[in-house]
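Hi R.,

Here's the chain you asked about this morning:
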Amino acid sequence: MIRHAIPLLALVLAPSLLLAQSVVRHKLPNNSTFPIAAAVEVPAGKTMVYLSGKVPSVANEKAEKNSVAAYGDTEAQTLSVLKGIEEQLKGMNLGMGDIVRMQAFLVGDPGQGGKMDFGGFMKGYSQFFGTEAQPNLPARSTMQVAALANPGFLVEIEVTAVRP
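And here is the predicted structure, written out as tokens:
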């Protein structure tokens, strides 16, 4: 009887042990303080949530439609996009700390000679990641692209989150 009970117990406990495993966030090497993870491991049994790219909301209704002035500079657009992502995740019972992967697409800022404003992006990003209140860092790629769907957009961000 005991011989049969042990395998049965293992079958019952195995799924709960898999679900108990946590997401592992690997730090960047050399004691780097840059606020991204070098890698993120997601254990089996976790639900992945893929959010489509999010773009900024209009910040200035009086500005010319489809202009950078209507949506703000890179920092303002980054804040708008991340607030939108935060709100969408909240509606799904998730938070910014559940994000494991981020891809940020930045258009060259006309005010910066057509180069992406990475500093402005980081000012917005750093308000959501690597803070005392939210220390979880995603694996992240940031790239300059030629254009986004609207000529006023300087920022589009897509994320992958994991349901805890």
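One quick note: The mean pLDDT is 91.

Cheers,
M.
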